[in-house]
Structure prediction request, 221 residues.
Amino acid sequence: MVITRQARSALNQAPNHKRDPDSRTSVRNPIRRLYAWILSFAERPSGPRILALVGFAESSVFPIPPDPLLMALCLGKPRKSLHFAAVLSIASVVGGMVGYAIGAFLWQTWGPWFMAHVPGFSPEGFTRVQDLYNTYDFWAVFAAGFSPLPYKLFTIAGGVFKISFPVFVVASLISRSARFFIIALLMKRFGAPIEKFIERHFGWISLLFVILLVGGFLIFK
Prediction:
């Protein structure tokens, strides 16, 4: 389990910056330490539960995507790869529904906190998402759910701008499931060799997939 050993090494080194000059960056970067801590659960029995929790929280507030933990779990137990993908897909969509509810009912109260503390939230970002929702409600949610775009920004903005809730749920379910099941299938089929390729090129791969899918739909239409 290559990725989990790396996570354990990062965890062992981060608290003590005297061991490695580069570890000072880990101490000063809480996101990097949080990333390593999340990956450490791949070696524990609670890994699937943590995967569901991360997927749920990442859809509204959590800064770390669940994909690395999904890959680590699939490496450790390839036969359960599709099970892990299903658990993560459901948790992520439910989390997206909670994000939609936050935008629809609590944004007046919580909006300033999100803008100040949650990565990816800004007035400019909300303006761009609103422009997308005015023209492409389904495809905007789909692109955010499948690609590295900040899905949580789109879930909460969906509630703020009152896009169709059924459209939001269907687009989230399709895109999140497609993303996580593709990763799980690749990990089950190719194992560790595909891991670095996915991490390095996931952004471009997902963007190409979305372009081909939307292009095919427009041609068909």
